[in-house]
């Protein structure tokens, strides 16, 4: 599996490298996401390539050229557009999803787009997470996946891969993380920031302490995480890492939304 991902990553990087030479606004690219950080799950092993634009590039060129590079790079793999704050291009190469994402080449804290932090996320986690902690991240991601709260998409409002990494970096293990979450208080702050936030849980981005990662997480999914954490601590079992667990523990959403935080 690892060798296959390496081959796909190299192939995708070579394709991007050829395309960016035609665009003066582009200053380079970097691998990011869970693959680059070594925290990927086999079933969720996307490869993210961040195309770095000169910070003086207009937003129009940033969008248009970023999308163009994505389609040109992946043209033999049936690429399509996905949307976040800015559009990015995705395709599947040899069974692995590859994302070509534009970002600005800026100094830390001088963000011009939501994706500018991503390269710093990769650098931070690469330094912060030991091989042991990477394993703990994978366990937490698996837990999220099988209680049906994994995913940062707007439609999902769940826990992203990066949030999984942040929680492990703050608490030190899967077990310590779910223990803390099982005792969660409404509005509790995880991390350090001088800024005040209004959300059921506040999770500070260690790369940008003015950013609350908890804003993107719905009360429903947070409730599922709290309930599942309490249930696991009460009776630990491998069943929590198998797909049926979400149906067995949380039979309906009505039981979730009334969870009271201590």
TrEMBL record:
UniProt xrefs under Pfam families: NTP_transf_2, tRNA_NucTransf2
Biological process per Gene Ontology, one example term: RNA repair
Magnesium keyword on record: yes
UniProt keyword list: ATP-binding, Magnesium, Metal-binding, Nucleotide-binding, Nucleotidyltransferase, RNA repair, RNA-binding, Transferase, tRNA processing
Residue span(s) of domain Polymerase nucleotidyl transferase: 19-115
GO molecular function, one term: CCA tRNA nucleotidyltransferase activity
Keyword Chloroplast: no
Sequence ranges assigned to domain tRNA nucleotidyltransferase substrate binding in this UniProt record: 136-242
Coiled-coil stretches: none
Protein name: CCA tRNA nucleotidyltransferase
Lineage, highest ranks first: unclassified sequences, metagenomes, ecological metagenomes
């Amino acid at each position: 599996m690892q060798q296959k991902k390496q081959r796909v990553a190299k192939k995708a990087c070579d394709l991007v490298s050829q395309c960016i030479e035609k665009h003066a606004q582009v200053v380079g690219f970097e691998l990011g996401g869970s693959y680059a950080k070594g925290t990927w799950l086999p079933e969720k092993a996307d490869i993210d390539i961040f195309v770095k634009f000169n910070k003086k590039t207009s937003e129009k060129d940033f969008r248009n050229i970023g999308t163009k590079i994505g389609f040109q790079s992946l043209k033999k793999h049936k690429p399509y557009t996905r949307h976040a704050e800015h559009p990015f291009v995705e395709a599947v190469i040899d069974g692995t999803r590859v994302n070509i994402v534009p970002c600005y080449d800026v100094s830390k804290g001088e963000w011009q787009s939501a994706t500018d932090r991503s390269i710093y996320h990769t650098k931070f986690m690469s330094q912060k997470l030991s091989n042991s902690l990477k394993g703990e991240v994978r366990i937490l991601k698996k837990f999220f996946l099988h209680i049906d709260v994994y995913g940062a998409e707007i439609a999902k409002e769940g826990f992203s891969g990066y949030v999984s990494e942040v929680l492990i970096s703050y608490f030190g293990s899967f077990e310590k993380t779910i223990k803390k979450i099982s005792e969660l208080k409404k509005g509790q702050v995880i991390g350090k920031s001088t800024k005040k936030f209004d959300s059921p849980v506040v999770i500070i981005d260690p790369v940008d302490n003015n950013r609350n990662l908890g804003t993107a997480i719905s009360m429903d999914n947070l409730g599922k995480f709290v309930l599942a954490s309490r249930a696991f601590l009460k009776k630990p079992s491998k069943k929590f890492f198998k797909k049926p667990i979400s149906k067995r523990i949380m039979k309906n959403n009505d039981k979730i939304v009334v969870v009271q935080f201590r």
